[in-house]
Amino acid sequence: MASSGDYQLLCLGNPLLDIQAEDYPEEPIANHIHSDESLLTKYGLKPNDAILAEEKHMPLYAEIVSRKHALIAGGAAQNAARGAQYILPPSSVFYIGCVGQDDYAAQLRSACAAAGVRVEYRVDDTQPTGKCGVLINGSNRSLCTHLAAANEYKLEHLKSPEIWPLVEKAQFYYVGGFHVTVCVPAIMALAKEAAAKPEKTFIMNLSAPFIPQFFKQQLDEVSPYWDYLIGNETEAAAWAEAEGGDIKGKGIAEIATYLAELKKANEARKRVVVITQGTDPTVVAVQGEGKAKEYPVRTIGTEEIYDTNGAGDAFAGGFVAGIVEGKSLQESIDMGQWLARLSIKELGPQYPYPKQTYSKA
Fold first, then answer.
1. pLDDT tens profile 326-350
2. H or E segment at 225?
3. 34 DSSP assignment
4. Which of 18, 124, 313, 334 is catalytic?
5. Is residue 313 annotated as a catalytic residue, yes or no?
6. How many Cβ atoms from other residues are within 10 Å of residue 39's Cβ?
7. Is 220 exposed, middle or buried, given 0-12, 13-18 or 19+ CB atoms closer than 10 A?
8. Are 104 and 124 in contact (CB under 8 A)?
9. Are 206 and 236 in contact (CB under 8 A)?
10. At CA 272, angle to CA 268 and CA 276, rounded to 5?
11. What gap in Å lies between CA 251 and CA 316, rounded to an integer?
């Protein structure tokens, strides 16, 4: 059944403003954004990773701002929310998280309003809005996040008389894995609400390798409620490493199948696990259906790739939009790939305007 708007999709995550370096210390690589690689070395960052900032990383943000840079609405789940709304009818998506009382928060509100996403932020009076330092090198992106106010989200906000009725009205819940570092009780409230009502769907994203590496216990608490789980190959491998046992070191198809067969709270709905692999086929496992399947990725020339930051979030947004609209699993995956393909032609986690209309591969 197609979406009818009316805020059917709720997204919970960590709202951040991306501070993205755009300087070119050497010759640019084709049309690619290419940040100064010396910043990676200086701050001990990997070329293709996502981490939470430590004290040693705090000067990074001012250093990026001192150079050529862009300020772009970010936060993985917020990016996915904007992506889903790009496809869905007006008034389909609302997003919750925590921001400060500052200009960064105002920029996030403005970006979401332009995208048609309703935001219901909790506002923290003591912490500034969170930010993410973004360094792009070719197809790699290094993300260094200072959560600040994003780390102050509270269950009380979700359960408030202003927000909970919206939760009850929504039919689909999407949660970024990054939020397990912030407020697991809020995630569990959404998960249990979905499990108790057969018409509702709970979707989660692994988000980054450090989530299963360092927050496996929190993931394990939520895992029985996953109706859909989204991740990429490095995140899946990190989960298998943290899980240990026979699954450690296995291939992506085996890991996806293993994840699909984990214990599930709502046994009436089969779990679906979707693992992207960049330009390699997307791996999908469905609970009870045995071996995982592969879905080829829409091809794109390297000369068309401008910026990979947010590509995974775009895939999630497109895929979730397909699920909300009642599309088949195959078409939902293609919708995710289509939106990711659009996103990597833009600067940061953004989508082209005027809006383009999805068409099957």
1. 999 999 999 999 999 998 777 767 8
2. none
3. B
4. 313
5. yes
6. 21
7. middle
8. no
9. yes
10. 170
11. 22
